[in-house]
């Protein structure tokens, strides 16, 4: 300390050097670390890195060969808000993986091998704003209630996956959603998908690369833009009847016809009983007279 009470320049340099040294000591091998950030991009990592500083806010694991995210190790990073895991080998079951990182705002899982998203995959990410799960060709299912707890979700990208169907309520009930990527998927444009297409045309959400949001099946609608097939699906689904519809109508008609016959028979039977009862009553009165 100088007589004025201010720290000498040498003291400042010493403290700064100690801080930098401590930062390097806590930095995982093959990664670079800055203040609250750990960057392990393109280091050919096979596993989740060890010795990540517990105060890390931003973790970048892009372009590696990581196939598993350990829930326990992630839970130690309670202050993590940004996690980039794109271009890895993540797949199979990610349920409850993110149970300990409730502050996470940004999550990128694109270019991986995800197969499904269940109601337990992201249910603990209550602060999530951006979720990228595009370019997962093995992703074939997103459960109806998969994003129920992600009410702050604003940016969702599911482009270039194996999805053929997405329930309307899965995204319709997200109050803050403004961006939804849907392009280059294998959308099956049947009557079950009509509600989703109608919602797309009526919502105020931005659909980037909208020209590539097209039907893949059936063959008659292939390559047609999804919003453009709404009118045709309305005609096919709401005016035309299929074989099962004719069978149902026939069965309903037969039941109504049979019920009518039974009702008429019962009415006639009751009328006869009443007539007989009245006739007997009149005969009894005559005998009494």
UniProtKB/TrEMBL annotation:
Compartments in which it is found: Cell membrane
Pfam families found in the cross-reference section: LRR_8
Record bears the keyword Signal: yes
Keyword Nucleotide-binding (UniProt): no
UniProt topology in membrane: Single-pass membrane protein
Signal peptide limits: 1-21
One of the record's GO cellular component terms: voltage-gated potassium channel complex
UniProt domain LRRNT: residue ranges: 26-58
Main location: membrane
Transmembrane feature ranges: 246-274
Gene Ontology molecular-function annotations: potassium channel activator activity; transmembrane transporter binding; voltage-gated potassium channel activity
Keywords, in A-Z order: Cell membrane, Disulfide bond, Ion channel, Ion transport, Leucine-rich repeat, Membrane, Repeat, Signal, Transmembrane, Transmembrane helix, Transport
Classification via Gene3D superfamilies: Ribonuclease Inhibitor (3.80.10.10)
Name this polypeptide is given: LRC52 protein
